[in-house]
Amino acid sequence: MEQNYSDNFLARWLAGELSESELEAFKTSEDYDAYKAIIDTVDSAELPTSNLSRNYEGFQTKIKTQNNSVDNKESSTKRIIPLWVYTVAAACVLLVIGYTSFFQQTEYTTDFAQQQVVMLPDGSEAILNADSQLDFKTFGWKANRELSLEGEAYFKVNKGETFTVNTNKGIITVLGTEFTVISRPKFFGVQCFEGKVRVSTNEEKSVILTQGMAINVQGGTTIQYNFSESEPSWITDESSFTGVDITEVINELERQYNIEVRGKALLKPAQFSGRFTHNNLNQAALTIFTAMDIPYRLSENGIEILKY
Question: Which residues, including other chains, have CB under 8 Å from residue 180's CB and lie 6 or more apart?
């Protein structure tokens, strides 16, 4: 005998609120398979978040097709599936889509010899240097402008709520300014190009940097210095350094040219101040190794440091 189930009954079923006897009776009914097929379609739907309107229309078509398929198999019995079921099913999909769109972590990464411009939700801008990763949540961004960085990035921050960059080496906090942050396993540095930046490192108390001021932390030592550039040199295909350990300089050479420098264990402790181009490996090697009296050999596979 055909049983027409009320919307309230179906709502209790979806919520798992039926008693054991009600659920068993429902499972043995002729209509159970039809309802179950529709809900299974919802559970297995894999919908992209790029176009909510298109996803909604596509899902409606999908569940109606599913229901028609069930009806055609048993044409002798008319199925009455309330419109309420379609509405709830579509709402479930939109809820999943909305959650993914607003709460997901957005991630950008760059490879060796690569840079990328990232537009943040409030119109602020981040430019990633080679071998870097940036993560942030888009939901509630304007009230909580917070992100995580591994590697190096140049930020142009619009005025607004506090803007925070979290790294493994320290935390940078600003309201509206332009600055760079570099956070590598053995090196941490911040340069302020405009406005004011608060830097809280793992080794020192908070330091305030204003335009033209910078800080480097390496090997447990913190140094502050001044600079005159109006933007990071790597934006224009040069890497510049002030009192940076030679190993870190060579690591950056590897990132910018996507090469391997062999023999780094032979390096003697030394600090490098200078810059190298990103457009000519031979010239870059001369700038670094010759200036530091480090013998080396350039080959098709990279650079080999010789014993000295």
Answer: 152, 153, 154, 155, 189, 190, 191, 193, 232
For the chain, the structural domain boundaries read 7-103, 105-233, 237-305
Say if CB 26 and CB 13 are below 8 A apart. Answer: yes
**Closest to 45 in 3D by CA, of 105, 102, 97:** 97
| Pairing state between β 238-245 and 133-137 | unpaired
The CATH class, in words, for 237-305 is alpha beta
Going from the C-alpha of 163 to that of each of 25, 102, 125, 249, 303, the distances in angstroms are: 58, 19, 12, 29, 40
pLDDT for residue 3: 58
What does pLDDT average to over the chain?
Answer: 82
Backbone angles phi, psi at 215, to 5 degrees: -140, 140
**3-state class percentages of the chain: helix first, strand second, coil last, to nearest 5:** 35, 35, 35
Residues 6+ apart with CB under 8 A from 106: 135, 136, 137, 138
| Domain at 105-233: CATH code | 2.60.120.1440
Closest residue by Cα to residue 10 from 61, 91, 77, 81: 81
pLDDT tens digit sequence for 129-180: 999 999 999 888 988 999 999 999 999 999 988 999 999 999 999 978 999 9
What residue ranges of the chain have pLDDT lower than 70?
1-8, 11, 15, 38-103, 203-204
> What size, in residues, is the chain?
308
